[in-house]
Give the backbone structure.
Amino acid sequence: MGEPMLEFNQQPVGADGRRLYLEGFGGDTSNAAVAAARQGARVAYVTAIGRDPAGDRFVELWQNEGVDISAVKRSAERPTAVYFVTHGRAGHEFLYYRRESAASFLGPTDVPEALIAQAKIFYASGISQGISASAADAVFHAIAIARRNGVRVAYDTNYRPRLWPPARAAAIIHAAVALSDIALPGLDDAHALIGVKDANAIADFYLSLGPKIVVLKMGDTGALLATNEGRVHIPPFPCTVVDATGAGDTFCGSFLARLIAGDAPEPAARYAAAAAALKTQGYGAVAPIPRAPEVLAALAAQC
């Protein structure tokens, strides 16, 4: 559940000196939904998009990926959000145009109770709640439905300072994590939200909130998988990075898909690390997300 965004990703400067942008798809939870679907999971997405060309492109994407869009609302008054990705020495940077997007007007009455009740995992993020107060309430309502029906809840902190100040974000995000079974924080998120940089201390904090599984995403240094029984470092999968946009989302969607398929957390995390690494070898958040045969072949080649 969350907000999709049409993506325009900066390409290398052409021979004529012009800056060209490759159209694609973004939005953290939409990226994760596509990643999960490409790993073989059955996925439904809860969101709102504009009745505009960008919204039409998303409908086409989700239908092509086999994502259930029965809970996707279309708005004639509110647009589909858009963002631009630029690349520099410090990595990728984002320019967002999401104010008053259709997704930001989601509220508790838009949450599809029957659909969530049938799921195995409900997934949302800090962005899903940061786009508006009503969207934050909608996610809490969805979490309540999931818990009431024995559906596991997974939550990615995914903090964006342009959406809300750290104190409010921490209060909302950590309240949601406390209701979750699986927490998927990022290293930079944790530093901003709890002021801690040490990976084990971050894992301790999120485990203390209540989740049974915590996976701390640490970018090019891999991930830390932590439970109350122990923890293990998941090394980064070898790759040649072109564009890291959406790599964390690919990790999340792939990890959850493998849990649903029956994997234990550690092999699921190792699989997800490989999927995320393969995604970084192409431009855009969605187009380079690998499918299961590609990930399995890469893992087999490494053995």
